[in-house]
Design goal:
This protein has 6 helices and no strands. The chain is mainly alpha-helical.
Length: 95
């Protein structure tokens, strides 16, 4: 993907010549620092609200389910096989 396509789909905010990157970055930082701190903090809080909600909810049920699956005999057997293959690979033994 070229830079124009990356900008078009939102991966980049703008494109500047390589010689102007540092100067433009410093200018952008100055613009961000000029935003009132309370406004910036509120914007960040709103932008991260969904992520915060994920970590604030009770995950006990999911943790119990994961632990149950992790310690199933089939899972443990598969993990032991993976460790064995990796050990053999590290020792230079091919299977």
């Amino acid at each position: 993907m070229d830079s124009e396509e990356a900008r078009r789909i939102g991966l980049l905010d703008e494109i500047v010549p390589p010689d102007n990157v540092v100067g433009r970055a410093l200018q952008w930082c100055g613009e961000m620092l000029a935003i009132p701190p309370n406004a910036m903090a509120y914007t960040r809080q709103q932008a991260r609200a969904d992520l915060r909600a994920i970590f604030e909810r009770d995950l006990e049920q999911e943790i119990e389910q994961m632990n149950e699956a992790w310690w199933q005999p089939e899972t443990q057997a598969m993990l032991r096989a993976v460790v064995e293959r990796l050990s053999q690979k590290k020792a230079g033994v091919s299977s």
